[in-house]
Amino acid sequence: MVCISCKNEHDENYCPNCGEKNGVKKITFVSIIEDVFSSVTSMDRGFLYNMKTISLKPQKIASDYINGKRKGILNPVSYLIFSVTIYLIVITIFKIPKELSEINNVSKSSFQITLNETGLFIRTYLKYFWILSVIPLGLALKLVFKKYNYLEHLAISSFIIGHATLVGVISYMLFKIHLIFDPIIYFVIFWLIYKVFKNNSKKLELFLTAFAALFLFIIQLILIISIIGILKSSG
Question: Rounded to 5 degrees, what are φ and ψ at 14?
Fold first, then answer.
């Protein structure tokens, strides 16, 4: 059999020269649906594999991905985008009634106006805002743990934020609290930081270090939200 990619002749399931799989089907609508469904539902690879492994062994999936053992792992950015997409679908279906989510049209202080403008901006651009929150989390992890380079910390942050977002789906259906204001989300982020960077350090030391990373992350979010609110209210 001749490899479709490098033209190497072989009789293996995968080309020993370039790794291309033999017998790849032509692209059809059915094959696309099958590939997408398989990548999402397989417990051995893809989205559900990430969910299972991050829930049970977050340190393993993070170290495996960073060390190049990526077979079966859905890359962290895709995992994050999948998770945020699911969250957006859920909040659209289980939308908070308008009268409960809006601030009454009464005279407001400048502080209330700033908060209102910030909330409106975040609700409108939540998908982009929350996805980009991996940037301050990655920075916080880099400053506190210094174990990897910044891009590797961004990958870890994407796993963490993506998984916390999925927990936020359940939390939203129960308590109707938006993602960025949900304390359960931040507890999950803290727990995942603790688990991912778990080492031979004393538990109390690691606990405080993980809390410091979470604190730096929240401070950065507050600063970003404050700047957005000030710019929107004065614009």
Answer: -125, 140
- CA 157 to CA 141: how far, in whole Å? 8
Report angle CA 46, 139, 229 to the nearest 5 degrees: 100
Q: How far is Cα 197 from Cα 141, in angstroms, rounded to an integer? A: 10
| 127-157 pLDDT, tens digit each | 678 888 999 999 999 999 988 999 999 999 9
pLDDT, tens digit, for every residue of 156-176?
999 999 999 999 999 988 988
- pTM for this predicted structure: 0.75
Question: How confident is the prediction for the chain on average, in pLDDT?
Answer: 78
Separation CA 206–CA 165 (nearest Å): 24
- How many Cβ atoms from other residues are within 10 Å of residue 91's Cβ? 19
Best CA proximity match to 126, nearest among 167, 85, 98: 85
Q: Which distant-in-sequence residues (6+ apart) come within 8 Å of 230 by Cβ?
A: 114
Exposure class string for 5-29: b at 16+ Cβ within 10 A, else e = eeeeeeeeeebeeeeeeeeeeeeee
Q: Tokens 């730096």 sit at which residue?
A: 216
Supply the DSSP symbol for 79.
Answer: H
CA distances from residue 88 to 18, 97, 125, 173, 226 in whole angstroms, order as listed: 39, 16, 11, 12, 24
> Tokens standing for 18?
């370039």
Which residues share a beta bridge with 14? 21
| Predicted pLDDT at 210 | 95
